[in-house]
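User: quick one, fold this
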Amino acid sequence: MKQILVFILFSAILCWFMFSPIYKHVLIVRQAVIQKEVDLLLEIGANGSHGYISEGMIEESRLRLTTRGLISADLQYDVTTSSGDDGTDPARPVIRGVGIQLLISYPYQRLFDIDRLVGISPPESTSRMTASGMKMSEYVP
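Assistant:
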């Protein structure tokens, strides 16, 4: 009976050691892709000819991230400015010197469930990975 228990515990730990690097790699790649998208949107949105991150830009971003394997409906975008103005309105771009901040979040989607094999509890089902950034607007009317 002890041998069976030892075999089961050893098998669980061996499975965790074999598959742990794979899902950690998926997590790292997803985080990097989302951060790269934040940097791209801020670079475009804060340049001298824009001064905003419009809903159209966000939809294009969703399409780009969908091609990377993320689910479009699960992505959440939050655009704010350091002055409190709306940073998504093309009719009222943010003027030079005001910061545009973007936050994109995405759920972990049960990536950590394999950790249960070794007794580590995964994050809450509502937990999300986030990527954020801020860039000063260069728009001059």
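User: anything notable?
Assistant: The helical segments are 2-45, 55-67.
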